[in-house]
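Minutes, project huddle
Topic: does the predicted pose make sense with zinc ion bound?
PN asked that the exact inputs be recorded in the minutes so nobody has to dig through chat later. Recorded below.
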Amino acid sequence: MQHSQLSDARDRFDRRAFCKAGVATAVGLAGASFGSPFAHADLTQEQRDKMTPDEILQQMKAGNERFRSGKPLHRDLMREAQATAKGQYPAAIVFGCVDSRAPAELILDFGIGYIFSGRVAGNVADEDILGSMEFACKAAGSKVVLVMGHTACGAIKGAIDGVQLGNLTALLAKVRPAIEATRYTGERSAKNYEFVDAVARKNVSLTVTNIRERSAVLRDLESTGSIKIAGSMYNLETGVVEFLV
Ligand SMILES: [Zn+2]
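Predicted holo structure (tokens), as shared on screen:
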């Protein structure tokens, strides 16, 4: 980045910080995201490296709070694209569902270069996804693996209904263990959203367990405290990401 761009970015942040001070206090966000590297400019390697996995999870919570309170940060995405073109230092990898209503960057209010983003219908992790997570954490230095399920998930409903369709059949079969492991005494059908969400929640925790069991690389990184593997559920109606740490 050139010097003039750097001072531009700094000016923008100073102005935003000044304008945001009143707003942040009013909505109780002061301290949560204020002054953090996630709240302005680009995420440098130095900023990312000195954060702990817990601090990164905290930034995710703060970003989701900005999203759902209708106060996302103003971002110059093209400037972020140019600033990150020659290198990236993402803090985390978020693994979610392909659902068009659950884009991780938007609901966590992050810019370009902040997170790796992996998506598979029903967020079931195969070895390609595990390899991607290992790349993110071991090779690229990310410190959080966040699995994100969501409410009213079509893949979960399809698995409950036993949908058969081309390659989707094998994918949905990977959700079946979550259906079987879900303890629920009411109507166990795809029409019952409460049951669908209970299965989605169980599916997140099984995916987290799977990651730990099937990836020695990630397991070792977690056991030394270098990374944290966590689950979460995104509520389509309220915009809330619930962290299951
Ligand atoms: Zn889904």
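Observations noted during the meeting:
- The chain has a mean pLDDT of 87.
- The beta strands are 92-96, 115-119, 144-150, 228-234, 241-244.
No decisions taken; revisit at the next huddle.
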